Amino acid sequence: MPENILGSHLYININQRKGMYMFTRQELEEMTSYSTEDSYIVSVYLTVDPATHLKDEYVAAFKNMAREELQKYDQKEQKIIAPEIERITEYMALNKTKFRKSLALFTSQDIDFWREFHLSVVLNDQIIINRRPYLKPLADLLDNYQRYGVVLVDRESARVFLVHLGEIEEYTEHFNPDIPGQHKKGGWAGLSQSRWDRHIEKHVTLHLKDVVNILSDVLLSREYIGRICIGGPVEAVSRFKEMLPQHIQEKVVGTFKADMNTEINEIRKQTLEIMKEVEREKEEELVNEIISRAHKGDRAALGLDDVMSNIARGNIQKLALKSGLKKWGYKCQSCESIFTSKQDKCPYCQGDIEKIDHFIDLMVQQALNQGALIEVVFHTSEKFKEAGNIGALLRY
Predict the structure, then answer these.
(1) In the listed set 262, 292, 319, which residue is the last one of a domain according to the structure?
(2) Are residues 168 and 245 in the same domain?
(3) 376: closest CA among 141, 187, 184, 204?
(4) CA 312 to chain centre
(5) Is residue 11 domain-shared with residue 60, that is, in the same domain?
(6) Residue 172 included in any domain
(7) 29, 42, 7: which is closest to 371 by C-alpha?
(8) How confident is the model at residue 200 (pLDDT cuts 50, 70, 90)?
(9) What's the rounded Cα separation, in Å, for the pair 267 and 119?
(10) By the 8 A CB rule, do 322 and 380 touch?
């Protein structure tokens, strides 16, 4: 186990980055650039949890889904898609030791494209065959499981964690062996006792400053962390929080009581509850802002048609939609433009129009392609519901 000395204090680097796969928004945005004109990209989301799928039932489930999906295509298209299905089937048979709870996989041999993500959260089983990777479930994950840091601190030690996509990993452990025992030395006068207390507090302050430096170095310099939770005894947490620089204090969204021996899964459980409440408040604030600005005509869209017209113009800054929202829509078979109502021909390329059942997903995909942020909302107001549970903040 590698060790670093921070002053005279022991700073142990625990994390070797072997356990947690860091799927990031940057990777999501990079994947939106992939597309194919003459072939297809197969996107698969599958529950593969070894704890609940001891007999590899997911392989049969995938084959059944793929068989049903292939029936939607003619023989020529099936010949193009079939090798991708075989490639995925072979991969699942040979790599099951990698699996966690869910697998997200994307492949197209035509453009030499392969991405796999092993996730510790459950995803709905589905397979989508299209010209582009189907990314909405991953966008939902990044919104609902935002990466955050956790600091567990007391007067002489600290532990630092990173939580991402439902998984917690301990980054570092810090211990200050130099803090003297907090008891009166025999025969000391009252003044000496006061000096002794100040001596202890000086060491505690130095320890907490070291933890601030560790937090800045480990979490904020090496990773993008937008939120931080602080746990520990109430006095230590309060004092540590006050010592944080302003730019770090602004990231602190909650605190909790814990001791330094708290089990890692208990830390995960407590902080996830804090994050759920933070997310609920964030959703409510965003929805209210969209409704207010839309009514004022101030760079906001409300309702399916309004949002769709702004997606067509590349004008979406942040898209908000109710979790599980589903709508029928239409897509051009040639240029893949999408429409909320039936068209005789595509107004852009005169291509044929087809009805699709994953219309909302394609809207999200196009918004992602334009660099928009996606907010999946679980708690909505009555006014947002009346507007179809979809809205957006606009660029201009």
Answers:
(1) 262
(2) yes
(3) 141
(4) 26
(5) no
(6) yes
(7) 29
(8) low
(9) 20
(10) yes
Please determine, for residue 328, whether its predicted confidence score (pLDDT) is greater than 80: yes
Element (H, E) at 42: strand 41-47
Instruction: Give the Cα separation of 49 and 58 in Å (integer).
Output: 9
Question: Which residue, chain included where needed, has tokens 């075989």?
Answer: 86
Helix/strand/coil for 137: helix
* Residue 129 CA: distances (Å) to CA of 46, 289, 290: 15, 36, 33
Alpha helix (H) ranges present in the chain? 25-31, 57-70, 75-94, 136-144, 190-215, 234-243, 246-249, 264-296, 304-312, 359-369, 382-386
- Closest Cα partner for 107 from 137, 123, 73, 130? 130
253 close to 275: Cβ distance less than 8 angstroms = yes
Residues across the chain: 396
Buried b (16+ CB within 10 A) or exposed e, 187-214: eeeeeeeeebeeebeebbeebbebbbeb
Q: What is the pLDDT of residues 356-367, one digit of tens each?
A: 878 888 888 889
Are residue 199 and residue 222 in the same domain, yes or no? yes
The single-letter code of the amino acid at 58 is Y
Contacts 24+ apart (CB under 8 A), 156-162: 156/204, 156/207, 157/260, 158/207, 158/211, 158/214, 159/260, 160/214, 160/215, 160/218, 160/219, 161/264, 161/267, 162/15, 162/20, 162/219, 162/223, 162/225
CB contact at 8 A, 147 and 162: yes
Question: Nearest Cα to 116, choosing from 102, 132, 137, 136?
Answer: 102
End-of-domain residue from the set 229, 262, 295: 262
Are both 200 and 257 inside the same structural domain? yes
Do the domain assignments include residue 140?
Answer: no
Q: For residue 152, give the 3-state DSSP assignment.
A: strand
- Beta partners for residue 172, in sequence order: 13, 160
Give the residue numbers spanning the domain of 203: 3-15+145-262
**Which residues, including other chains, have CB under 8 Å from residue 392's CB and lie 6 or more apart?**
290, 300, 301, 307, 310, 316, 317, 318, 319, 320, 367, 372
CB 119 within 8 A of CB 165: yes
Give the model's pLDDT for residue 199: 52
pTM for this predicted structure: 0.72
Helix 136-144 / helix 359-369 crossing angle, nearest 10 deg? 70
Strands 126-130 and 148-153, how do they pair? Answer: unpaired
Residue 214 to residue 249: CA distance in whole angstroms: 15
